[in-house]
Design goal:
Number of strands: 28
CATH class of one domain: Alpha Beta
Number of helices: 21
Radius of gyration: 26 Å
Length: 730
């Protein structure tokens, strides 16, 4: 469900160059002195020993999910143990318009949406002659809930002045920012359906999305306005294009015909001068048609009702501890993704502050931040952040790499502190989680936490299963629990969500209280609800978060949605899960990722990729299996720094990184590493790729090879590297 800390940059492509900066990591030891460090370590070790006799024994396992009698012939449904009835409203509000108005009245004077001041833009020339844009950003400028409500009302009236009515749709085609959110809520004040489109979407998918939904108005930034101008002749129904006011006049395209091009502020001012009464939606009205980035083919538009969005937001609020007006959320993920949309809806309902940033300005060492100035996290000092597993993996790799580079006492102290904290989390000493924790935080981890502002108290994660090692690493180094969730666009991000007192890893929690989850046997794949010691099967989600289906695609809707005899709506996810005895779900496979080889063996591509990604040489990997062969192969994007360090030590000479990737010695080195990782997790021989191809360029959402949540787009990857894959089987 929840999606990342990503430093996406086409300018600097290596894994190491996208890491969080830790260049001053060694300074964490300054001020302690040798005696201070040794004394603190002795004290840290002594306290648990002295008090261990008082705080011992493991807690009894808590029952988090229980059977629910909701009918249906397939499988046994599980519900959240804390709720006997589904949560489908937020303090009585059942629509996004009602939720927005409710929060704006309740928190009228509190700060709500924050945007950083742009002080200057510099152009830097790199060693290779390429130019890079660097931003000097100032402090956050805030608008209160009351001020935002006025802007939303004005924008809504401005849309009516442009000619919008209940039969027309508005598309938002832009990166996340305050105006995105204001546009979104403005549409709901007039019960207009919003079409959300990823800013990284290609021309064909963009045209398809706008034409299929017959959009009348597109709201965008200047960059996307240029893209729209290129395809404007193919857009059948678009009459208006509204661009954000920070666009430079000279950058605005002049070749858009048969379309009104107008600034955001002009629409607001028009609405202010011509106010109209709101036309508010009801629970079952379609709020959003969300186009997925699509791992295969053209994107599909998922129809979300107001009730769907509110139900998930309300359910998440019951799980996240003490979320309220004191919390600050750093928003930098795409609002066109259901995860960020729901995360910000949760913050709205709780009265929290939302500060907007970007993936390229997130930290002090991010690629678009001018040297010596603060990144978004340092300026905002958020208490809550969201991420996807792929990005948390990169955070972990970045920290460990810097620790290795420092070596000596720094590395020894870090490893020792980490091992102590790990033991305390997985053990039973109460004092290890309090007194000793505080000591290690001061000695070792405080400086690391400053990377993200130093105040993070919890993180939200989703989009794919998070590895146990990475989850523990973030728990310890960032000092925050991770709420790992599971859901899909088709369930409005609602599914399962881990509870914050659950310290286990590799699981996604019990069902959210907005719905139920059941497992349905998949005999062909060998997963059944009769399996021991835990039932396994396809994950099927039912309840208030399950969406209305795919826009203009009844056949696909009927394929994966179903309504039971009690009127309960269910979605068949295609994911394979198992329920632990305490009612907590674990995702273990995906039906589409399982391929049957020539001799009948089944290979789970996702499982193999997750296992092999542990190699230090792997930045990204796609395993490919051909049913007409007895082995699988893989495309590997190598970690540039790791491979170049190996080449230096091995005396391998080359001019370009692409040349190194083609060298037989480099391919053999990476393949040996993959074999080692495969053996460590006991993969069968046929599961480990027999041949690999090293791909020098990383896969980003901009390249169209991964989704915005960084899931592999297998069909696009197979098409792009068709020749390379064929050669691997020769």
């Amino acid at each position: 469900m929840f999606t990342g800390i990503k430093e996406m940059d086409s300018e600097r492509n290596t894994k190491s160059e996208r890491q969080m900066g830790l260049s001053d990591y060694l300074s964490m030891l300054k001020g302690h002195g040798a005696f201070g460090v040794v004394g603190a370590v002795v004290l840290a070790l002594s306290i648990p020993i002295l008090l261990s006799s008082v705080f011992t024994g493991k807690k009894k396992a808590k029952q988090r999910g229980v059977p629910a009698d909701v009918g249906g012939e397939e499988g046994t449904a599980i519900r959240n143990a804390k709720f006997t009835k589904l949560v489908d409203a937020s303090d009585g509000a059942t629509t996004m318009a009602a939720l927005f108005e409710q929060s704006c009245k309740k928190y009228s004077g509190d700060r709500f949406l924050g945007t950083r001041e742009l002080i200057a833009t510099d152009s830097i020339t790199g060693s290779d002659g390429r130019k890079f844009e660097k931003l000097h950003l100032g402090e956050y400028q805030w608008e209160t809930y009351g001020q935002v409500f006025v802007r939303v009302s004005n924008f809504a009236s401005g849309l009516v002045k442009l000619g919008h009515d209940l039969e027309s749709r508005v598309a938002i085609f832009a990166d996340s920012r305050a105006e995105w959110f204001i546009s979104f809520q403005g549409c709901f004040r007039q019960n207009l359906t919003v079409v959300t489109i990823y800013s990284s979407l290609g021309d064909e998918a963009l045209i398809h999305s706008l034409n299929e939904t017959q959009v009348s108005t597109v709201i965008c930034d200047s960059k996307q306005l240029k893209k729209l101008s290129v395809v404007s002749s193919s857009l059948k129904t678009v009459k208006n294009m509204i661009y954000f006011d920070d666009a430079v006049a000279s950058d605005l395209p002049t070749n858009i015909s048969n379309c009104t091009v107008i600034s955001f502020s002009e629409v607001e001012n028009s609405g202010k001068s011509n106010p109209v009464d709101p036309v508010l939606p009801i629970k079952k009205d379609i709020a959003v048609i969300m186009y997925t980035s699509g791992s295969t083919g053209l994107p599909k538009g998922v129809m979300m009702t107001h009730g769907n969005i509110v139900a998930t937001a309300a359910a998440v609020r019951t799980i996240v501890p003490d979320l309220g007006g004191n919390d600050v959320y750093l928003a930098y993920l795409p609002l066109a993704h259901v995860f960020e949309l729901e995360a910000e809806s949760v913050m709205l309902a709780a009265g929290a502050s939302i500060g907007y940033g970007s993936a390229l300005t997130l930290t002090d060492t991010s690629n678009k931040i001018k040297k010596g100035t603060m990144g978004d996290a340092s300026a905002l000092k958020p208490t809550v952040m969201a991420s996807v597993p792929a990005i948390l993996d990169r955070v972990r790799d970045g920290v460990l790499k810097k620790v290795d580079e420092k070596g000596g006492l720094t590395k020894k102290l870090f490893n020792f502190a980490f091992s102590r904290r790990l033991a305390s989390i997985e053990g039973s000493w109460f004092c290890s989680w309090t007194l000793e924790k505080l000591l290690w935080d001061v000695i070792v981890f405080k400086k690391i936490r400053l990377i993200l502002g130093g105040r993070i108290r919890l993180m939200l994660c989703g989009g794919a299963p998070l590895s146990g090692d990475t989850q523990r690493f973030i728990n310890i180094c960032m000092g925050a629990p991770i709420g790992q969730g599971y859901g899909l666009t088709e369930t409005c991000a609602g599914g399962a969500f881990s509870e914050f007192d659950d310290t286990s890893v590799g699981r996604v929690g019990p069902p959210l209280p907005s719905g139920y989850i059941k497992l349905v046997s998949w005999e062909e794949g060998g997963y059944t609800t009769a399996d021991k010691p835990m039932p396994r099967g396809e994950v099927v989600i039912g309840g208030a978060s399950v969406t209305a289906g795919y826009f203009n695609n009844d056949a696909k809707t009927k394929e994966v949605y179903a309504v039971d005899e009690n009127g309960m709506r269910w979605f068949y996810s295609g994911d394979i899960g198992r329920f632990h005895p305490d009612g907590v779900l674990e995702i273990i496979d995906r039906k589409k990722d399982i391929v049957k080889l020539q001799h009948g063996e089944y290979v789970s591509l996702g499982k193999v990729e997750a296992a092999l990604s542990s190699s230090n040489y792997v930045d990204n990997i796609m395993v490919f299996a051909d049913p007409y062969h007895s082995y699988c192969v893989a495309l590997v994007v190598p970690t540039r720094q790791a491979l170049e360090n190996w080449a230096k030590g091995a005396g391998i000479t080359y001019n370009e990184f692409s040349e190194l990737c083609d060298k037989v010695e480099a391919v053999n080195e990476v393949q040996q590493s993959l074999s080692k990782e495969g053996k460590a997790v006991k993969l069968d021989k046929f599961e480990v790729p027999s041949k690999i191809k090293l791909v020098p360029e990383p896969w980003t959402p901009e390249s169209g090879l991964v989704t915005a949540a960084f899931k592999l787009k297998r069909e696009q990857l197979k098409a792009r590297f068709k020749d390379e894959l064929q050669k691997l089987y020769q």
